[in-house]
What we know:
mainly beta
Amino acid sequence: MVTVTGAFEISEDxxxxxxxxxxxxxxxxxEEGYVYPCFQSENRMREN
Length: 48
């Protein structure tokens, strides 16, 4: 897990949101059991 502290600004053209990061901290994996999400493609091939 990463925690980013900063401020959002709008680009000069007004089309983008920019994060100006002031600090980035990496935290350890939680002590409790943690389940990582698993994503599968809906368009996966099927065996015949």
